Amino acid sequence: MTDKLTLERQLYSMLDDLQSQYNRARAANDTQTMEKLEVLAARVNKALDRFALLSLFELSDEVAALRKLIDGGTSQPPSPAEDAEALQKEIEAILAQSSEEEVATEPVPSEPVVAPEDITAPPPPAVAGGPLTLTEAHLIALWKRSQFPLPTAGIVVFGIRGCRPVDYSGTDFGPGHALEMRELNYTTMNCTIGLWKPGKGLALFPGSTVPYRSVVAGAVSKGGKDVNQLGRGRYKKYIPGWHKFSEGASGHWALRQSCFITLQRTGDDLDYDGNDPWTVTEGAGDNIHCAFGMGPDGKIPDAKFSSAGCQTIAGLVTKGTEGSERGPWKKFIAPFRRGLSQEYGSTEYVLFDAAEVQQMIINRCKGKSVILRFGSEGALVKKLQASLKARGADVGVDGDFGPETFNAIKEFQIKTRGSVDGIVGAETAGALGFELPQFEFDSAISGNPGYSVTKGSVGRQIAWGQVTAKHPNFNETVLDLCERLHIDPDHLMAVMAFETGETFAPDKKNAAGSGATGLIQFMGSTAEDLGTSTAALAAMTATEQLKWVEKYFRRVAAGRNLASLSDVYMAVLWPAAIGKPESYALFVQGTKQYTQNDGLDVNKDGVVTKAEATAKVQQKLVKGLAADRIG
């Protein structure tokens, strides 16, 4: 008996034979033969989908039976007695317990995908300059450009449609990994699914974010029923669980969609473009699961996959058998496997287009605007919602780009553009009568909103703003004094959060007993030099004390630029380091200052650098920019 690898190759050869026969039948307009060939190809693909589940003996029998049906002794399709309906019933009975989404033949080539608003079409497979390296900084910038709340802990899943990792086996977590741009063909896996642990790196896996082409072809006549393509955006909750409720423990472990999503269905052709209808739904069952394909000889780039709309990762798994995961899928699902659900009980899924990722890596999206889409949050979303409401849309102004806002944008784009992508870029914003700010990469990765803001700009939010809102006029006063001092208000808020243990209490005392007091821990001598005292400062409201914070910064900065977070913090901790490089040594082992601050020596090399000293303040900045604190 031959081995499984040879049998797998034979199955792929059968598909090629069926495709040739199908092309000849189509040229002759022989629809009856075409229908029978489609059924046969569906059975071959079913066998490939179940490749890991069948024993060698079962697989040999299946290949022999398929070859007999295909050849028929005369290289002709089955006789009329073996009609398509009867054969389909037979296949369904055999595979009912283990089949994935329907994967049939590939009768016609896919049409090119039309690029959505603000995105240039992905380049062909061979891209000048070679692979591109995606890093955590790029992910932060991509999140900020779409005004998605920045994750600060846990694990996040993201997809990139139209590129794949250079390492097809799936990477481990690291600071960055190489990608190569690919064209979508809806037949092989030309997308990337990634995992991101904020501050701890990212991992990339080959997969697909689109449905399988023949499934799309089979659904066109039904208006796209039961087949869809997920829209780009942020989807808030996927939970570990069984991929199909009907299979339960006899199926395989995956990430289940448990939130609203946006999707498209096509009923006119094989592409998904601006003319195809969009839906917002919670019940699509668009999970993130194993692709049930690794390709001949494990050549993942050439592998078929099983999906009618789910997001899939290359690999195999034997249903009902724990620990049987193979290929990239094994690495991907490991953080979510049974028994660890309490650690990562749920995750977000954020889907991007490869072209926007490419633009972010190559030129930092220079000249592009911020964009708003499903899952965006914040002040700019409120501005969008207010514009929609002024035009009669039934939306709340809550700063959350959810189902209501998406449907309102969909209707607006149909009326004004005739095509829909559900994304608000510069074009749609202009039609709504407002302007989106230009995206700024440096602003995004330094803890800022990703665009320039000035006093009075609509909906300006600051880190920790929800916490300090309890102090009357505190946030407004911070914005005013920071404009006068030419420093970033988020940076000052992060410093005050660190110095007060996140309380922003004007009477906060230094835990070490130094007597330092207040928002930036004024020392007694410092307070006296400013013309007050720590007792007087402690008796003030938080907003009143900001006057002395401004006075202190004016005196210490003495006209020097405090453009970075580290320089704002140095103004409080060690003013001599303002303007120095991040590697500048503040305290060296053997000195009193080092002994008092040895907890800041991150690498324990006996030197506290400017960067090390600022690390904990940076953590406060990230924490303060979270959705439940920024305001």
General description of the model:
The structure is a single chain. The chain is α+β, with helices and mostly antiparallel strands. The protein folds into four domains: 4-95; 132-363, no CATH class; 379-436; 465-624, Orthogonal Bundle (Lysozyme), CATH 1.10.530. The protein contains 21 helices and 16 strands. The strands form four sheets. Strands 9-8-14-2-5-6-13-12 form an eight-stranded mixed sheet. Strands 1-4-3 form a three-stranded antiparallel sheet. A three-stranded antiparallel sheet has the order 7-10-11, with helices on one face. Helix 15 (489-499) crosses helix 21.
Strand content: 5-15%
How can the largest sheet be summarized? Answer: 8 strands, mixed
Bulk shape: elongated
How large, in whole angstroms, is the Cα Rg?
A: 29 Å
What order do the strands of the largest sheet run in, or round the barrel if closed? 9-8-14-2-5-6-13-12
- Number of separate structural domains: 4
Helix-strand makeup class: alpha+beta
Oligomer: single chain
Helix content: 25-40%
Whole-number mean pLDDT = 83
Query: Would you identify the regions where 5 or more consecutive residues have pLDDT less than 50?
Result: 73-129, 454-459
Distance between the termini: 68 Å
Number of E-type strands: 16
The helix tally amounts to 21
